[in-house]
Structures are given as structure tokens and as C-alpha cells.
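Single Protein Entry

Contents — chain, fold
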Amino acid sequence: MYNGCMIDEQQLNQLNIKRAPVRRMNTTSKWIIFCVLAVAAAFGVVVGWRTWYFYKLVKSGSQVRLAHTGNFTVSPRARGFASSSFEAAWIDRAAAPAFGSQENTSITIVQFADFECPFSRDTYGTIRELMTTHEKDVRFVFRHFPIAEVHPHALKASEAASCANDQGKFWAYYDKLFQNQSQLENADLKRYAKEAGLASSAFNACLDGGVHYKEVMQDYQDGVRAGVRGTPTFFVNGQKVEGVITLPEWEKLITYFKK
């Protein structure tokens, strides 16, 4: 829903009409400029307030929810589950795929995601960009949370990513899955492994044998115990955040935590 000023087709057509060499800004043009500036200012205020409010809640130890119905997939099995306390191991498992230095890192971002969830995909590019710009000061951890009731290919995709992790290629395979989210059949998963430079025979045996099924389901159960209701869900230094977070919000958040 657009809550700024609207410009109808007739007004747009009027703006495209060639005028005399001496140009004067008419009333319509003035209103258009005013509306654009007003919308831009309002957006800046909302983003700034949202980030500040989120930061204050996290620092006070309150549970945070930034999720909206349009950017969060709820798991039917985890719906309604609430946890007021949990063990750190439920969030940050030692064997989970991680990116970034563990030394001198004051910020850890743990993501519970579903490879077939469109909102997890929406966060993919942002997280990858953060990995590039904050490799030395932020540790990123990935946990599987396949919502099989909604996304039938998610579980096998997570198993495939774990098989890729066995060969040290988790993040390359992670990229393949999110970049090709509409094609996650078993044949596709094996093709992506080959494209990512994995040893096909070992990968195929791992995937076909369901080697990492229990591990993926353990991630899911850990998430439920920690209060994860759906994807994407993040834990920033142990504090839960649900839903898609924009790059500007992440940058401001990281800056706050560095202080």
C-alpha cells in the first residue's frame, strides 16, 4: 500500500508536453516535488525510528519482533510456541556453518532460514553483502529451519547444503540454492553441487543416503526451543528478531552494537 502522494495518469501526460522556451514551474509540478520530498523524509524518519527502537529493545533484553505478515513465513508446527529462556547451544551450535572471525568479534548474527522460503531469499543478498563488509567484526552463523508443511523441497535442500558443508563448500552451495530457489528437485540439487565444484560421487551418496537428516531436524528443534516461529529469524547477540531486515537497518544496528 502506498501512503504518499499519488500522481494520476493525466498529470503525468501533462508533464511530458513540450513547452515554450521560457519554463515556469506550474502548480502541479510544485505539488509533485513536494510529494516526493515528503515521502522521502517520511521514509527516513520511519527507518531511523525503527532502528533506534529495535536497538533500545535489544539492549534492554526485551524480545524483539520486526516481522510483518508480508515478510515472514510461519511454521504450522512452531506456531504459538513461546520460550522465555533458552540455552545458548540452541542458537549457536558449534558445528553449524559460520562465516567471519571468532576472535575479537563483539557481534554474532545467527540466522534460522528455509531455502524455499521467499522471505529467507529476500534476506540472502543483504546477508551476503554484510559478510563482505563486516567479515572481521561480525560472525555469521546459519541454522536450518525447513518448513516442510509449506515448502516441500526445503528439507532436502537443507540436507544438500549440509552435504556441501562436508566438503567445505557450504556458502557456495548456499548461493546456488537461493539463486535458483524455484528449482530444488533432487536432480537440481545434484547439478548445483557439480556447478559449485563439489565431488559429485560423495555428494550424491550423502544426499541419497539422508546422512544429514537428523542434523537438519536437530536445527529445527533447537530453533523451536529458542522460540523460532518461522523464517527468516535472526538472533543478534542472543536477541530474537523476526522478518526481513533492510541493509540500512542492519548497518545502523551493527554500528550501535560496536559502541
Observations:
- The radius of gyration is 22 Å.
